[in-house]
């Protein structure tokens, strides 16, 4: 009975804490500017099914795609087991679903095989990061915390899977010993090989089985509450992020409606613009970005596929699209904390541009869309870079002299170079 | 040129409408190397007997480099002025000689009141080949020559056009070789996003060098391009690598014109 009450308390506390933190993230995302991404629901759904569920953009790199697929499928399917653990925990039952008979054996057997593949994949991922030290996992933005974050996730998953398999091994051994409460149920294609390592005393086995059971479920609850602080949040946000992703051609940049009004008024003095809220042009801070940009930042799992294909980064420039996303998340988290501590009106005098992302970074971008194409969950770092440029150019008139010259030429000569408009058709006279 | 390039103003005065407007673009109008490509596109249009026209001096920058640099004001000023001209001429279909003009007019003009059917010149060439109006005969033979095609970002990733330029090369019976990074994974030439008009940021290499090295790995005789900016970047790369004699950088339009003896 005590165990059941404890279980209930832990579960409720974990869910409550997660809800609080999750709602804070939703609030932070809502600090972003409005943008309508509710059009074409069918196309959006298909995109989500293909890209998030089907992981269609992962296959570009077959080895991590293969390993990640195991972890993903394992994670989703083994969670059916969590349902049983929940019921057993609350009602003091043991393997409540054993009544399913042959199907139960099949399920437990499948979970074990999946647990092993998850275990192996995570170990290989860990080796890739820490021993092989793949280039994709290095870079200036991969400081102590992002590196530790990745390792914590992998270690936790390895431990959870180990506990699951050890629990089954102890359970199966108790079943063969005919111990009360341990009804004969399940099949153990993997954990049967662990049985030989286990103690033979009944009490020790029960302690081990219970210990692993508690470790497994408390581990999952703790992991759930780690998500809001971690890059691992992508397991939840990959779905809405792909659903609300940009469906237009990647080359198309949004036309700013606020500018359209002013330009129309300039070209036609009789034009009366519709009421629009005054705001700044482009983005200086995260709250000037759209909510989709901010959701993108929370979705990023820092895999670095964007940075590894960025022409600027490849050639040694400071720009790294992954850093753009990580900076955006760090800054919106900071803004959120400020609101919690000091209220919504608090200004800390910092901003995304300059305090997090430098001018040198945003001006190194070729707008080639390689980062957008590479992201397995349809994150768009380019849009953030463009919004920062818009602020720099339109609000501050801060751009390289050569860029200003180019713009001056367009204004005066209708071409980015200093040629006379009268000579524009001279090409037809050549051979 | 052996024939006169018709302008919209002339057609309108004669009470005629073209089948297609050829949007030349700033590079195609002023850059010496790109002017050659512009003339070759005209030669192709003339050769197949398509009724076309250009805007001539009435054409103006689409505003693309201003927009990518962050100057939305200047972009929209340019766009609205251009749309006014295009709509006044009742333009329905446009072919561009530049992927940047193509992307801007196709995707960013409709929201400002300018909706047209827009194609890139490699798509036009593909259509003409498909319709049997254009072949690869009567000119220089590219048979068996090693050609590698560099995807311009605003044609490829930007608009998903990967096949048209390759189809235009396939009729040559040449040996098409792909670079390691091609199609949706293609590497930028380094000129996009207004980089064409500024010095690159500090780094350890120029992007066009990275790209040209990759292109040279395929041992090509021809590097095919479809964008005047890529053309500049790749040609500069070839010069720096001192490979001008062995490797030619040619636009798909130039290759098509040469293959047809135009």
From TrEMBL, chain A:
Hydrolase as UniProt keyword: no
Keywords: 4Fe-4S, Iron, Iron-sulfur, Membrane, Metal-binding, Oxidoreductase, Transmembrane, Transmembrane helix
Record bears the keyword Membrane: yes
InterPro entries attached to this UniProt entry: 4Fe4S_Fe-S-bd, 4Fe4S_Fe_S_CS, HdrC_iron-sulfur_subunit, Helical_ferredxn, NarG-like_sf
TM region positions: 6-23, 65-87, 107-128, 149-170, 213-229
SUPFAM superfamilies associated with the record: alpha-helical ferredoxin, Respiratory nitrate reductase 1 gamma chain
Domain 4Fe-4S ferredoxin-type, first and last residues per copy: 291-321, 355-387
Protein name: 4Fe-4S dicluster domain-containing protein
TrEMBL record, chain B:
Annotated ranges, domain Cysteine-rich: 21-106, 147-234
Keywords: 4Fe-4S, Iron, Iron-sulfur, Metal-binding, Oxidoreductase
4Fe-4S as UniProt keyword: yes
Keyword Metal-binding: yes
Pfam families assigned to the protein according to its UniProt record, in alphabetical order: CCG
Protein name as it appears in the record: (Fe-S)-binding protein
Taxonomic source organism: Pedobacter fastidiosus
